[in-house]
Amino acid sequence: MSVPESFVRIENWLSTHAPSLLRQLNKPGLSVDELDKAEAILGAKFPPSVREAYTYYDGESKESTGLFGSWRWLPLCEIIQWNDEQQRKVQKTHLVDFKPSFMIPLLKLTSTNSDIRYVETSGDDGQEETPVIEWNHNRPVRDIKYGSFANYLSTFAERLELGEYRPDDNDINKAHGLVLKH
């Protein structure tokens, strides 16, 4: 399923079951020029599905507790800020072999604020899709979760429609995120 098809399904579900969350997605999305500029700042290419997703929305608002089941989709400015922080840590600790720009953090776990889901950068031509990988600070292993960000979005849309998530508040107009049903 394509990124646009996934967003249509996600938007339809949210408009019915959690309209306040639909409003927490940052609109408008980014222009191609803004994405090109961000790639130049980061010194890395985004995978195609990531670029396409950011043309629809620029992540989620800071008030969100995580549209993607406690995972908050980061706006592009926060990705750049994260990369800058990592670069400063590298300079401070003299880890010359570490290059934080090889990874692009897309989602942050709101319950810990330290676990991330990221994609690796695409090749020089920007055409390579890369997997969505989870990094847990308590278990620092490379845990591949999805084959691409497009796959992540389509799986999430399907799980919404199957009823696996619910708003984090009984009043759907006051919800700030989604949580898995138990």
Structure in a nutshell:
With 182 residues, the chain is an alpha+beta fold. The protein has helices at residues 3-17, 19-22, 32-42, 48-56, 76-93, 149-161, and strands at 71-73, 103-109, 116-120, 132-135, 143-146, 165-167, 178-180. The strands form 2 sheets. A 5-stranded antiparallel beta sheet has the order 1-2-3-4-5. A two-stranded antiparallel ribbon has the order 6-7.
- For the record, give the distance between the C-alpha atoms at the N and C termini, rounded to a whole number: 27 Å
Roughly what percent helix?
A: 25-40%
Structural class of the helices, strands and pairings?
A: alpha+beta
Question: Which band does the percent of strand residues land in?
Answer: 15-25%
Number of domains as seen in the coordinates:
1
The low-pLDDT segments are none
Q: Biggest sheet, in brief?
A: 5 strands, antiparallel
Q: What radius of gyration results from the CA coordinates?
A: 16 Å
Q: Kindly report the average pLDDT value.
A: 88
CATH class: Alpha Beta
> CATH fold name, please?
SMI1/KNR4-like
CATH homologous superfamily placement: SMI1/KNR4-like
Order of helices and strands: HHHHEHEEEEHEE
Count of DSSP-assigned helices: 6
Number of strands: 7
**Widest sheet: strand order?**
1-2-3-4-5
Tertiary shape: globular
